[in-house]
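By convention, the token line describes the chain's fold. To illustrate:
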Amino acid sequence: MDTNTLVLIWFGLIAVLWIGYFVLDGFDQGVGILLPFIGTDDLRRRVMINTVGPVWDGNEVWLLVAGGATFAAFPLWYATMFSGFYLALFVILLALIVRGVAFEYRGKRDSAAWRRGWDWCLFVGSLLPALLFGVAFGNVVGGSPIEPINGAPASDAGAINYTGTFFDLLNPFSLLLGVMTLLVFTTHGAMFLSLKTQGEVREAARSAALRVGVAAALVAVAALLWAQAYSGNVMITLPLVLIAAVTFLGALVMTRRGRDGWAFSLTSLTIVFAVASLFVGLWPNVMVSSLDPAYNLTVYNASSQQYTLTVMTIVALIMTPIVLIYQGWTYWVFRKRISTSMIPPEPVSGRSDDRFEGAMNR
């Protein structure tokens, strides 16, 4: 395949990886955000944690692969984004680390204060990425102050310089996109809880999904319509936005009717179409300069050589089905609903996340 075809394939694959991450880790983050609100006692919180406990780390693999694929396929995109957004991405990384530690350490001591502290770590470690990922994407799509160094052409590796500050990232469009991802992920997490739980936790999750979902719908419509001002392919992105809006409203209707599987599937489709609209609108750019369109990074001036892209394509064709089969098997094994009746009355000291006995067989 020629280079133009390969860069198109890898731009599309990176979009798929980000979509997969937002769909999968999005509900993980949503559950964490809802922990203080639905988890009104320790038993409820343990139910909520156990819905995502077996899968959260596998879901984060999508983020690692998306970052690695960007580094290998579009090194100048990776270098510019990670240097310009360094502080924001560092906060995201720190939050994800804290969240991962909280999952593993929450049940290490039989102490209410100990568990309560880690519960707040789960909340903060979920809320910050849900917000800041949207802010980061807002700056990629809406533009950032980037320019060549010393007049060097954009195709020279390392020749693009981010001239802004951390506070330049907090512009109105990016903040709105961040609020959108925060609210949509929270709704997505509530619908996942409705699908995976029984009894009082399920009822509380359905109520939260409806309340937060209305706000999420309003913010998402405003953010995605605003994004059309930056889109280079409005004839494609606008229909994608409209489909996302319809699927999200459908999810709220299904939640109200108690059709949890349909509701969760439709919020997943909402995220697919919403993120796809951002990537399609970005094409052929990978980072937009707010200083001068001539400084934009594109798939052509930011990509690796043809040989690198070819080798990556071969590896992806071999490994991707293996990863999908393994992750699908994990979800199948842990497919059952759980409830407070399945949780022992007291956590077993030393267990990593207060896991319950025999729930998979119920």
About this structure: The CA atoms of residues 231 and 292 lie 16 Å apart.
